[in-house]
Amino acid sequence: MTWPNFGALGAAWLALLFIPLILFYFLKLRRPRVEISSLVLWQSVLEDHRVNSPFQKFKRNLLLLLQLLLLLLLILAAMQPYIPSDQENSDYLPIIIDNSASMGAIDKPGGKTRLELAKEQIRDYLDKQSASRGMFTDAFRSQKIYLISYSTLARRLQDFTDNKNLLHDALDKLKVDDLPGDPNEALQIVKALARRYDFDRVVLFSDGNFPSRVDFELPFNLEFKKILPATENIGITDLVAKRAGPDSWDVLTRVEASADANVTFKLRIFQDGVDITADDGTEQENLAIAGGQARRFVYNINADKPSRLEFKLDITGFDALPADNIAYLDLPEARPLQIIADDDLKTYQFALSRLDHLKQILSEDAEVGNVDLIITQKEEIDKEAPITLHVGVIPKDIQPLVTMESGEQDEIIDWRKDHPLLQHVILDDLVILNKVSNKPEVSNQNYEQLGYDIIAEGTNAPLIISKRSGLQEHVYTLFHTTESTLPYRIGFPVMVYNLVQEAMIRSDLAEIKGYKTGTLPELPLTEDAKATIKNPDNSTITYTADPDGILRAIPAPYAGLYTVSTPDIRHERSVSLLNATETSLVSVDSIQFKELTIEAGTELHAETHLWYWLALGAFLFLIIEWWYFNRKVGGIAE
Amino acid sequence: MAKTSAQITTLFDNSVLSRLTRMRLNASRRFTNRSRGENLSGKGGQSIDFADYRNYVDGDDIRYVDWNIFARINKPYIKQFRLEEELHVVILIDASTSMMFDNKLERAKAIAAAMSVIGLFEGEKVSIYAANHQSDELKLLPPCRGRISMRNVFAFLENLEGGGDYPVDRAVEDMLKRHRGRGVAIMLSDFFTFGDLNRTFNLVHSAGLEPFAVQLLSPTELDPDFSGDLRFVDVETNDTIDVSGVGQLLDIYNQHLNAFTTQIATLTRQRQGRYIMLSTEDSIESMLFETLLRKGWII
């Protein structure tokens, strides 16, 4: 049995009030004196009354007893009795709150989201926490709470504080992110806190929609307060466009249903706001999907110019999570790959000509807008492309590191087989007529310090290197391929094919995936350009491009349209949830850590305060006492 | 009442006095007495008027046994002859503090004076006792007779002051210790005593006195109008009693008052006496010539 404690034991001194109460009572007993001729009759009257009414025996002192009892109730209330919770309450308590996409699910129409339920529990706990401890502690202390939220990343909501207003405000501002959840980073934050603050208990509020295994060693007790998950949901979990022809794309979308979902739906497609679902304008029929299953849909969509696709589920029935019912795809123009190739690089020209027709090969002096691939023998060229192959070029900043030995042969002894350029390319036994060697005391580290990645190595120096410059990548073959046996290898056209594929990917001409929430794709601006980002909820924030002129790591936690604006340009990017785990709403009942398994609990128990019940009881008692002793008793009975 | 030059006494008007001189005290029994009364039989003489039979008790003179009845029913009875003997009227006035409420003492003194006048004009012996403080002896107007004693009676009563804690039952007992002679004992009191009134009336009866109990009560005692929580103070003893919700207890009070008066009435009736309860709200004339006359106390 849990015995009550007292939050303000010092209030027991109020018991001294019993003394004046008793004194005043007996002073008050100085009733009006009435002289009468004799007490003979009145004494017998009282005797008679007392005999016939046993309660009267006590009534003389009943008022005193009642008032003593009333005072006792008030003193007990002032001492703030409470029944301790079944958990140890240290002075510090970190609380981790899952605000990933699945926490936005509801369990019935008009119901509360999982996050709202979690907030309610936390608010209830905050309100019930004692404001002070007993008189034998150092001072009046309250439990300090630290709030952390997590979805893909963790975010500190409020430092340790016992200020309930700050904590409530932090909770009020917390919203659901349209992002998948992973508590790992939040646990890392708490682990860092544990080095500075003394606590051994951390509370995690989540619906359990996260990996059941977490690679983390718990240095504290973790209490997993599971919010009852919602169960009925369908959503769009994938959206990919593949090039289908000179001016069209095949757009593949996948719709998945949670285990308990049982709904029908229509999948509507909007291209730049225009419904293109049915070409002939007929009403689309309802589609069905079984619980726990997925369905794929493929649509061929014309894209002779850039457009924005919006896939929307119109669901008949209850759907728990609205965030995954809509997905976006920024569809670029379906145009041919623009390649600029040095006219003298005949081997490359020939290899390029053998590839499919989705390209256009131009000479270096051609006037062209978008260039997707450049193959050149120059270090610098007045055009830019996402990928440029410099054949036989030693960059100026590398030249001090190497020597060229004509007449000496070289070979490639190692290469990165996973590099997009060299996939399925064999470079064994390649004969290179000129040998590039590192100067003494030059190592690969020198190349890396200059920002180069080494793709292939010769006997004495790297032979194929690459460097990123903004969104562009420059690949350098330090040997001229025509001065090697490479063009005669089967791998050479494969390498060229890889080059073209990479260019198509980087130019969004082969396959486009719907951008997922998290961060916006990198955007090319100008160096140190300031851009204003308008979010789907119409809030704005300003970011500055890096020295390369790239706007990176712009947070995009919510699905919808983001607008990036500078005084000169305007970009629009759409992001979607597109996460099968969040859509499935599947939840775990335990978390497996490295050495420990934590089972899910339910409510966060706070102390149960009794003072207001005592105060209420005292108030009602006072009312009854006032009524009883002030009811009409005077006058001659009728 | 202020004594004017024409008023004989302040206790009542001359008209009342005049009327009283023509009245008689109607005692229910006549007691043989060795003193002379108005229609005295004289010592050694007997009246020829047969009055009644009574049971023979030890010590009775067997000359008065009716042998005819004895022969008939084999049980002795004593003949009683009506003798116009002198009646000793002894009056006890409770002059304690309780009687000072609402003119109770004034009424008591007036009734005492009236009874004294009647007795004196009838040629009876009249004595008056007054009880004030327990610590003091009873005040006494020694037995007197004749009309010339009337002024002494008035003077005694007019000068009688109230106050004290003499319980009436003890006052009667002390009175009987000093009194000699049979007759009528007129007790003027509120009879509010914790003592045993049964014993009191027994003593009176044993002393050969016919108890005439006049209970004088004030309107406040007859119909109290109290309410709330009060502390009652006994003016004689200074004892106190706290009563809560007095208004709710008035019914019970009235019941006890009725029982109390009934008890005294029963005690006097059982001893061949008379009892009456008078309210001080009534005038002395009303008391004497309406109530007492109607009740047959005086004729």
User: Could you tell me the strand content of chain B as a percent range?
Assistant: 15-25%
Structural class of chain A: alpha+beta
Spatially, the strands of the biggest sheet of chain A line up as: 18-17-19-20-26-25-24-22
Quote the beta fraction of chain A: 25-35%
Distance N terminus to C terminus of chain A? Answer: 56 Å
Total beta-strand segments of chain A:
38
End-to-end separation of chain B in angstroms reads: 26 Å
Main beta sheet strand tally, sense and closure of chain A: 8 strands, mixed
Backbone shape of chain B: globular
Taking all residues together, what is the mean pLDDT of chain A? 85
Enumerate the spans of chain A where pLDDT stays under 50 for 5 or more consecutive residues.
Answer: 131-140, 632-638
Structural class of chain B: alpha/beta
Q: What order do the helices and strands of chain B follow?
A: HEHEEHEEHHEHEHEEHEH
In terms of quaternary structure, the protein is heterodimer
Which stretches of chain B of 5+ consecutive residues score pLDDT under 50?
Answer: 31-45
Radius of gyration of chain A: 39 Å
Kindly provide the radius of gyration of chain B, computed on alpha-carbon positions and rounded to a whole number of angstroms: 21 Å
So what's the overall shape of chain A? elongated
Could you give the count of β-strands of chain B?
Answer: 10
- Biggest interface, CB < 8 A: A-B, 27 and 44 residues
Strand order of the largest sheet of chain B: 5-4-3-6-7-10
